[in-house]
């Protein structure tokens, strides 16, 4: 299944849905930051998320309980691949260098990343 890009509003709703696992529109609104969006706004966004294949619902009486279909990890992988492809020419080295230059990664984190790479190499051989 092809994952589509989320708008900022859709991603905000999905973040809440991923956090709670399942919930009704009122549950989502309760968790969203102030100013709280209108019920109809959240309801419309969640239906768009269903159309895009990100969420589904279970009908309980007159209410719908929504749950994620795409995991946070699946979307993270999609978003990271898109970032890597569109802004760094598919070069992890360029992306890593960018984060180091912007001081988004400190030396301790860089050491941890190098350890992870070393462990990955050991496990592959």
TrEMBL record:
GO biological-process terms attached to the record: negative regulation of DNA-templated transcription
Q: Which UniProt keywords apply?
A: DNA-binding, Transcription, Transcription regulation
Protein's UniProt keywords contain Protein transport: no
Citing just one GO molecular function, the answer is: DNA binding
SUPFAM superfamilies with a match to the protein in the record: Winged helix' DNA-binding domain (SSF46785)
Q: Which family does it belong to?
A: Belongs to the BlaI transcriptional regulatory family.
In Swiss-Prot or TrEMBL terms, this protein is called Transcriptional regulator, MecI family
């Amino acid at each position: 299944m092809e994952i589509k890009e989320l708008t900022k509003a859709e991603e905000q709703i999905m973040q809440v849905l991923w956090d709670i696992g399942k919930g009704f529109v009122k549950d989502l609104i309760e968790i969203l930051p102030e100013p709280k969006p209108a019920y109809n706004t959240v309801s419309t966004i969640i239906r768009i998320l269903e159309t895009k294949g990100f969420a589904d619902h279970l009908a309980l009486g007159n209410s719908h309980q929504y749950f994620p279909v795409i995991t946070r990890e699946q979307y993270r992988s999609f978003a990271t691949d898109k970032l890597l492809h569109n802004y760094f020419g598919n070069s992890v080295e360029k992306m890593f260098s960018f984060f180091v230059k912007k001081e988004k990664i400190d030396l301790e984190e860089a050491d941890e990343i190098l350890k992870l790479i070393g462990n990955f190499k050991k496990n592959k051989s």
